[in-house]
Amino acid sequence: MKQLKFLLIALFTFGAVSFGQAQTKIAHINSNELIEAMPEFQNARSQMNKLQNSYKSQIEDMYKELEEKRERYEAQVEEQTPEENERRVMDFQESQQRIMQFQQNAQEELDIKQEELLKPLLEQAKDAIEKVAEDKGYQYVLDSAEGGNVIVAEGYNLMSDVKKELGI
User: Is 13 helix (H, G, I), strand (E, B) or coil?
Assistant: First the structure.
């Protein structure tokens, strides 16, 4: 009986030690906060705002011209033939479609530009996170940014170490 007790205690102790040695180290970081803290992000944001404002201005000008056309057509509706009024309605609708197409193209170009500007930052942040995690012995790093699927982030936060790695 004593031998069985001793054997159980030895197995339990060995198991606890093995579990402690095999325990996975997990850390977390808010990737959005990290990216926004990078100096290059401010430059990317500035470029995006400039491009966005340019498109916004062009679209506003297009709508202003369309409104002027509408007012002109409405003022002249009595002076025109039904055929001419029908042509003007079609012209107005085509102008609306061109503006909507321009808006869609502008949004697509903004999305492409944003991806182009952020891709190097994301890669740089990822590389720094991986390096710090490896240096500190973390097997997993969870993203605690909104939508990152981390409910509780009370473990080790890599933010200061990764910022130091990036020189920010």
Answer: helix
